[in-house]
Amino acid sequence: MTISESNQHAIPSDTFISEFIDTLTFNEDGLIPAIAQQHDSGEVLMMAWMNAESIGETLRNNRVCYWSRSRGKLWRKGESSGQVQLLKNFRVDCDADTLLLEVDQTGPACHTGRRTCFYRVVEGDILKTDSEPLIDPETLYGK
């Protein structure tokens, strides 16, 4: 399923959402991996987990919601940092076991204050950090 930018506010029906969720392949914990990608640049921002409830909420609100394994509850991206992800397209891979969310990310996606969680790169025998935080995490989360 794709929610196009021009049709972004067309919210799927509860019936469609329920039937769609039933087509997905969740792991033994009831989770499915979701990759967030900036819709206009293609930049891969992060990977997180979703469950049926977070998928339904995301599709109903066009604001991305994940499942936090560490907190054991829904995690509405940006609820503590203000760095929200607005859904542009919701894609499913061929095996229905991985999601690709094309989003419009406000500010950094990573809890380290960086734009992307994928800021470390292997170069030969070195694991190199290739970007600095945009915002200090203490400022981002008020801790």
Automatic annotation (TrEMBL):
Q: Where in the cell is it found?
A: Cytoplasm
Gene3D superfamilies hit by this protein: 4.10.80.70, Phosphoribosyl-AMP cyclohydrolase (3.10.20.810)
Q: Which InterPro entries match?
A: PRA-CH (IPR026660), PRib_AMP_CycHydrolase_dom (IPR002496), PRib_AMP_CycHydrolase_sf (IPR038019)
Write down the EC number: 3.5.4.19
UniProt keywords, alphabetically: Amino-acid biosynthesis, Cytoplasm, Histidine biosynthesis, Hydrolase, Magnesium, Metal-binding, Zinc
Q: Where is the signal peptide?
A: none
Question: Where do the annotations place Zn(2+) binding?
Answer: 94, 110, 117
SUPFAM superfamilies of this UniProt entry?
A: HisI-like (SSF141734)
Q: Which GO terms describe its biological process?
A: L-histidine biosynthetic process
Which residue ranges does the record assign to the Phosphoribosyl-AMP cyclohydrolase domain?
A: 46-119
The task this protein performs is described as:
Catalyzes the hydrolysis of the adenine ring of phosphoribosyl-AMP.
Q: What is this protein called?
A: Phosphoribosyl-AMP cyclohydrolase
Q: Which organism is it from?
A: Leucothrix pacifica
Q: What is the lineage of its organism?
A: Bacteria, Pseudomonadati, Pseudomonadota, Gammaproteobacteria, Thiotrichales
Q: Which gene encodes it?
A: hisI
